[in-house]
Design a protein that fits this description.
The complex is a heterotrimer of chains A (307), B (307) and C (242). With 307 residues, chain A is mainly alpha-helical. Helix content of chain A is 76%, strand content 1%. In chain A, strands 1-2 form a two-stranded antiparallel ribbon. The longest helix of chain A is centred in the last third of the chain and has 27 residues, at 196-222. By secondary structure, chain B is mainly alpha-helical. In chain B, 72% of the residues lie in helices and 2% in strands. Chain B has helices at 2-29, 36-54, 61-85, 90-113, 127-137, 156-178, 180-190, 192-197, 202-228, 235-250, 257-275, 283-294, and strands at residues 147-149, 152-154. Chain B has a two-stranded antiparallel sheet. The longest helix of chain B is centred in the N-terminal third of the chain and has 28 residues, at 2-29. Chain C has 242 residues and is of the alpha/beta class. Helix content of chain C is 36%, strand content 24%. A six-stranded mixed sheet of chain C has the order 6-7-8-3-9-10, sandwiched between helices. In chain C, strands 2-1-4-5 form a four-stranded antiparallel sheet, with helices on one face. Classes of the chains: A mainly alpha (307), B mainly alpha (307), C alpha/beta (242). Chains in contact: A-B, A-C. Chains A and B meet through helix 5, helix 12 and helix 14 of A and helix 3, helix 4, helix 10 and helix 12 of B.
Amino acid sequence: MPSAASRHLLFILAPLVAVFALLPGVYQNHLLLFNFVIFLILAQGVNIIYGFTGYLPFGYVGFFGAGAYGFAIMVMHLQWPAVLAVLVGGVVAVLLGLLLTPLLRLSGAYFAIANLAASLAVLHFVANPALEGITKGPYGVSLTGTFNPTHAYYAAVVVMGLTVAAVVYLKNSAFGLALQAVREDAVSASMAGVNVVKMRVIAWLASALIAGLAGGIYAWYVSVFYPDNVFSGEFSIFAIVFALFGGVATITGPIVGVIILYGIYNLIGFTTPQYFQLIYGLLIMGLVLFLPAGLVSLATRRGWNVP
Amino acid sequence: MTYALVAGVLFGLYFSLVGIGLNLVFGVMRIVNLAHGDMLMLGAFIALGVVGIAGIDPLFAVPLAFVVFLLAGLLLYWVLVPRLQGSANPEMLSIILFFGLSQVIEAVTTIFAGTSERSIQSRLLGSVFTTIKVKWFGGKAGGAGPIQILGQGFPAPWVIAAVTSLIVIALVYLYLYHTRLGTLTRAVMSRRDEALATGIDVDRVSAAAFGIGLGIAAVAGVFAPFMFGSITPAFGADATVTSFAIVVLGSLGNPLGTALGGIVYGLCYMLVQTYLSSWADLLPYVLLIVILLLRPSGLLGRRVRVA
Amino acid sequence: MSPERTPILKVSNLVKRFGGFHALDGLSFHVTPGEILGLVGPNGSGKTTAINVISGLYAPDGGEVTFDGASAGGAASHRLVHRGINRTFQVPKPFLSLTVRQNIQVALAYGGATGAPSIAELLDDYRLKEVADRPAADLNSAQQKMLDLTRALATRPRLLLLDELAAGLNPAELDWIAGRIKALAATGMAIIVVEHLMGFIEQITDRVIVLNAGKEIFEGTLATAVREPQVIEVFLGGEHAR
């Protein structure tokens, strides 16, 4: 087992981090690279909670937005340095995750919809004019003091590295196996000695932390944003679709999904968002109908082992 | 207070109409139709079309919307559902599939209709009654004024929508309890597996429920421009969450429970609008989460599968 | 009384209600290490409910469950597993997308047992070697039952509850599994067997308890049980009434 894990770290994580650390030197569109890294993080976060645990997080963006606002509040009101504020973003997301742990009692569609509702509730809460003194309400925040896209980019690469490392761990550890066991059948898992509730909560909070850190870094990078930007449902949906397209409960699936789908998106370069919406809507439907286990299933069906 | 309560009941009846189709589909197929709100949105565009092209009372859009979406539902069912139910995890995949469908519908509508808000003059709704009154009983032609209930004036479209909702709920009741297909539908709703085993044509029952569910959603959509002031292609997503809240509030899987859920929701909606208007946006989401957690089976329900 | 004869599980006055239905209505019994106890009775008499309560799936509504000298009623399943109780399911629900080997690994890693058998032994002993690296979804129902049993054994239970393990096995497999269960008991494991196949019960149990409507109506060997009028009444009453 340890040898498989080190192989995964060496041949998947290391090249991925190296490529994204070096690319800014040779490729000029840094915003695009940054978005790639953010989606890699979010897709792997979805992988942890959906792929390994079986909860479909339709409101995953709630954690991302909470992280962004955690960052913004620290910077606006307490003038904290950016790196610490990013960590606070992660903590805020974890706290939100804790608040929402009762949702884990719900299964299937109930969880997905309740999670979606929760993210919208957080959006409307943050954007409420009554909270203008704290969050600036719907008027958005401007954080020019910490503006430093270069540092923010590398922070994102670090978080991406840690996230992928976490997935490598899940893929190669008894812990990851136990999570999947809980996903498959909670009663049998408990009779294998697994503390089902604890496992679910850990996975849930880990995926919340990941999205919160990503949100904090996003706020750092863009420095000016509105509630609608950082709570946009597109973050949830893209992350889920990218992860599903590649194949969940694997290390490489979400990575492949982001690189192919987000790559195609940017190559085509739609000027009108509705055409993209049409194409990804059709893509989602095609995916569910024809390739429900993702791209990697094309390989596993042939008996190849895909990490 | 009287105003808020009566308006709450009127809106509540309408909200029942909004949710009942979603509940019928869920009850029979155990599938959450995340494109439900988009069916409403399309129903609204049929009303816009009837007014804009034919220049007649939008009430004529009601039967048109129902028939068109009944047929669309039957077609959609046969295209999508068999493939879906052959897959490993139909419940989760159906959520994603119908989400994709909702994206496609929203995108296509945006491509043809743009993103601007559209509304219909409220005096047009029900003008057919005024015309009849004028022709048969004399009196002078003119817009339908506010309708008096308990000494308060309410916009005529609210009352017309509430009455239509009552009629539709009564028809759903007749369908479920006094037709052969309806009886089979109830059998499938309460015991899907046993219904399959006893040789009930579950596909036919499900297809009918799906078609009727979509048809009712479109009928509800016809009134949406009057109830909410205006309509955009993006209306669908919010409408889906609202519908889900209403359905869960009543009882998931019991279409008639939706009537109660709708009225409770309508009363809450009006009371919050009246007394706490800045937090009104939060209502559907918070209500949905609270109900899911405290009473996952809804106000009327018995029990529901939890994780 | 030798220490061997001290009961490892004592159940007294156990009550479990579902709505107004009393699934268990004051059930009391005990089982000692190395003993194989059969629970028999008509459908709905409370056999599986008793197993579900003892294994922590349901909290009892009344009465006591004492395991190894300490209270065990209403404790979480995974804690009871760590204390030494495990079970199989009438309809096994293995982790379908994981391989057979991974299924067992989960229980070995989380069962909290020291000195548990190795994966190789378990695969060998329960005829799963050939399918070890196939997903559990590929197994037939008899193999899924064996996998479920290995999942339980990997946690090295001192009390093993078998819910209709034999149903659906062919005669040769029945003989084989009866031998395995007896071998387990010989190691000092206490085993409770719920089963409909009377021949199988007779072959392996030391003692049976006959349940009806959530209560014990007879205790002793199966051979004497079948001569007991009250037992005959319960099992055949329906037919006599016709």
